[in-house]
Write a structure and sequence with these properties.
Length: 294
């Protein structure tokens, strides 16, 4: 069977290094990341797959950056469960840029420390404008990839690729998008996000009463605790690790968190979305407004 250009590229990239994949929506970044991981693991390499698409992630739930170690190609045919998570707190690539960059770099470092020979970073679809270019610039700066693959349908990646070439020494390949990828509608992406969030809150769920002192950022004195109702949080273990997600509930002056990862919980990181558990949809909110009312 004739090798396709993307299969050939995956084979070339399946060597010890750090590779970052960038491109717009539905250009085949995730498909290529799996091709690379399959090739590399088949030849005995340990692959660290980092999914930093906080909107429609394939490793861990939306609002998080996830890491999965691949040691056998058969793992790529299984449902992915994250080996490590870093909570960001949004599904919008244009918001919380600092948190997204830190989360991505943290998972890349974790992959390297965990023995990955090859680290593959799957990124968000934000590739243009101030927010998109800023996000990609700082991910390059902190993740330090050896090689970047930019997938494009037309010429949409040329501005950001030009910027990255100007400031960084990594090799950058500009290639056509995967031809067999079908573009998903906004409704399809929203449905997928809801499915992933529902999965993140699978049972058994427990409700834990929490003190106002367990949050990051710290709650201001006199905060109307009702503002925390339905807020999504990252459940932290006290050693810098995110155990999973939780949702806050306020009732009768008490704050509780609903989660399936309460054992080992030491703190809660506030996100910038509210979660509706009836249909697992989210609504963006301003954390400043929640905290200070403006």
């Amino acid at each position: 069977m004739t090798e396709t250009p993307h299969e050939k590229l995956a084979r070339e990239l399946a060597v010890p290094s750090t590779v970052m994949l960038i491109g717009g929506m539905d250009t085949g970044k995730t498909t290529l990341s799996r091709r690379i991981a399959r090739q590399a693991s088949a030849h005995g390499l340990v692959v660290g797959l980092v999914d930093s698409d906080v909107d429609n992630s394939t490793i861990g739930p939306p609002t998080c950056v996830g890491l999965r170690f691949i040691r056998d190609p058969a793992q790529l045919d299984e449902e992915f469960v994250a080996d490590h998570l870093h909570f960001v707190g949004t599904t919008s690539p244009s918001r919380l840029v600092l948190q997204q960059v830190i989360a991505s770099a943290s998972m890349v470092d974790r992959a390297r420390e965990g023995g990955a020979d090859l680290v593959v970073i799957d990124t968000t679809a934000a590739v243009s404008g101030v927010a998109g270019e800023t996000l990609k610039y700082h991910k390059m700066e902190l993740c330090r990839p050896d090689r970047v693959v930019a997938l494009q349908r037309g010429g949409e990646m040329e501005p950001v690729v030009g910027m990255l070439k100007r400031f960084f020494s990594a090799d950058i390949d500009l290639v056509p998008a995967e031809p067999d990828i079908s573009a998903r509608s906004p409704d399809e992406r929203a449905a997928q996000r809801s499915t992933l969030l529902r999965r993140a809150f699978h049972g058994p769920l427990e409700t834990w009463r929490v003190r106002p002192t367990v949050f990051a950022p710290t709650l201001p004195t006199g905060l109307d605790l009702d503002r925390l109702d339905k807020m999504l949080v990252g459940v932290q273990d006290g050693a810098g690790n995110c155990l999973g997600l939780g949702r806050l509930e306020h009732d009768d002056g008490a704050v509780r968190v609903l989660t399936n990862v309460g054992e080992g919980m030491k703190g809660l990181r506030l996100g910038s979305v509210r979660l509706d558990l009836d249909n697992f949809t989210i609504k963006p909110v301003s954390l400043r407004e929640v905290m200070f009312g403006f």
